[in-house]
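[DERIVE STRUCTURE TOKENS]
===
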Amino acid sequence: MPGARTTVADGTAGHDEGRRRWAVLGVVALAQLMVVLDATIVNIALPSAQQDLGFTDGNRQWVVTAYSLAFGSLLLLGGRISDLVGRKRTFLIGLVGFAAASALGGASVGFPMLVGARALQGACGALLAPSALSLLTTTFTRPDERAKAFGIYGAVAGAGGAVGLLLGGILTEYLDWRWCLYVNLFFAAIAFTAGSRVLSAGAPAQRPKLDVPGTLMVCAGLFGIVYGFSNAEQHGWAAPATWGCLLGGVVLLLVFAVWQTRTPHPLLPPRVVADRNRGASYLAVLIAGAGMFGVFLFLTYYLQQSLGYSPVKTGLAFLPMVAMMVATSMTAQNVLVPRFGPRPIVPLGMGLAAAAMAWLTTLDLTSTYAAHVMPPLLVSGVGLGLVMAPAIAVATAGVLSTEAGVASAMVNTSQQIGGSIGTSVLNTLATSATTAYLYGKPPNEANVAQAQLHGYDTAYWWSAAFFAAGLLITAVLYRSGPPAGGVSGGASAAAGRRGATTGASPDGPGH
């Protein structure tokens, strides 16, 4: 019967489309993992790279800072470019550029070449990360599938730093520091090959003009803020370059915000950030990005310097937290947020993360991993899992398909700015506490070890304060109840339904 054949054909087509969507998730998650872990994987390789290339301690920070400066300052531009020229095209170009920059960095013969490669990595990452998340936003429009997809994506975004520590330790210890960069070639090759096949080409039929004044203002403003925090870590808060860049960055961002309400083609349409749920989500990602460094940065120092762990053993120590984060992210997105909404879930995660940070202050020189280190790590994994996946999903829900790229860029920008704040503020506070502890004491081995512990404790307490502030902010800002239409939101879901009806991609017409 023709009807039966049609039903079978429709079912097969639906099954194939479902498989394509999950393949898209795999490609996007792999690309996101590559971008996120590159912020930490090089940290473990730095001592070996410094010895090999012969650069000074003062210059060492630029290997990390060059990446974060380019990445953080260009993210909103990268997100808007993906909206204007097509997400698939932007994603694949970003992948190729990231791989080329990684190869250049791995082959570095001197410090300038390495720093230049890291800056190019950051610029290509600013193209790659927003287009990856916006592809996910426009591909998964059914609430049940979207919940699963964003649970996985949120876990990858949150756990990428810990994965970078483990992978960096393994590659540095058993191969060479250069492989911390070369490994991206394998990630990029897999993502490019699969992405070329499964991603839908799409761009708006009518491409609006790029907001050039707004682009210049926001890029310069974000650059000033990221550079100011990075400079504070190295030269202190009183340095003119620190407060001058921070002040200039804030002023430029305020002017940018006013400009966006007046220009006919805004780079960041005010409606994207004006929604209470989305605004709360961007702040949640920023605060979690700042607080997470209390775990990754200072616990890494503690395990290696205080307990004498190797880089590989240090990376392995974070795996239980990563596993808990993945499991909790999936549960939060699939079960909790659809039923209760983000308002009770994200603040609960903030509270658990704050408790975990406070728990870490009990560690001392005689602490053991199983009894003392792993329990607070597990609690922090649960807390971060409850924060990251729901916040990222809600931050991109309900936006127009033509604004998915810039909304996704705001997620990455929030996480990047949060990471910059966390690194500089916590490191400055920890260093000051360590110095104050040693004041008037003989600098023997025992006192130095205790001083380091005191510095770590200070960082943990401040991380706890960040998360406690996040609890209050998100509890006030999030609306009560499940998001309308699930976490898929109105506009994106409607775009997806129109695409299903007409046979078009929700991304827009093909090139």
Remarks:
- The chain has 17 helices and no strands.
- The mean pLDDT is 81.
